Fold DEAD/DEAH box helicase.
Amino acid sequence: MQFSEFSLDKRLLATVEHMGITTPTQIQEQAIPIALAGKDLMASSKTGSGKTLAFLLPAMQRLISTKALSKKDPRALILLPTRELAQQVYSQLRLLVANTQYKAISVLGGENFNDQAKALSREPHFIVATPGRIADHLSQRHLFLNGLELLILDEADRMLDLGFVDQLKQINDAADHKRRQTLMFSATLDHDNINDIAATLLNSPAHVAVGASH
Ligand code: ADP
Ligand code: MG
């Protein structure tokens, strides 16, 4: 299979080609059509299997092909457990948005809070973030998620290990509306609390597990 067989904007396909990527990985092949169909998804596959593009491409496509619910609020929020992981995802996202009119920022723990508040006030479409810092900005009303169309949790198992459950619930409540799509990715689903958080955040999700032993 080729990326061009997915219903993706030609600017996205061109960026993928520039990345030197031709054939989708298994998780991409299975997750992208489900995410493009607007369904909630819980997906797992091992580290290094290409999960980042499995959610960034459908997220970009949704922004391109649908009308924004809100002019001000971010349209997509991607959460990761650590700064380093968030920076890796943000660098791939920047390549994808470079070709479009969309604006992406990162909001990470350990960076200047006021600078972040300023960046949030400039109405980015996309935010890549760590959960604690986003929860802080929500509490300070620097950020509203009423117009959020896509909530993506990457490395969900590690976010739970790092104790981000309360922040995830706060973010979920701030973006609680019918038209939100939620995608959850993890290296493993063997985690005590992952089904609980999935039940809270996801709405009748499809499940994709590549390389699972059962
Ligand atoms: P994961 O999140 O599953 O650990 P990543 O999304 O970080 O994996 O991808 C790992 C590496 O594989 C990255 O360098 C990425 O650019 C590359 N990659 C992603 N998709 C493909 C693909 N379809 N073909 C070849 N390489 C890919
Ligand atoms: Mg990853």
Summary: The mean pLDDT is 95.
